[in-house]
Amino acid sequence: MVTRRPGFTLIELLVVLSIVAMLLTLALPRYFSSVDKSKEAVLKENLNQMRDAISRYYGDKGKYPESLEALAAERYLRKVPLDPITDSTSTWQIVQPEDPQKGGVSDVKSGAPGKSQDGSEFSQW
Question: CB 3.0–4.6 Å: which of 39, 45, 95, 108 could bond 84 by disulfide?
Answer without folding.
Answer: 39
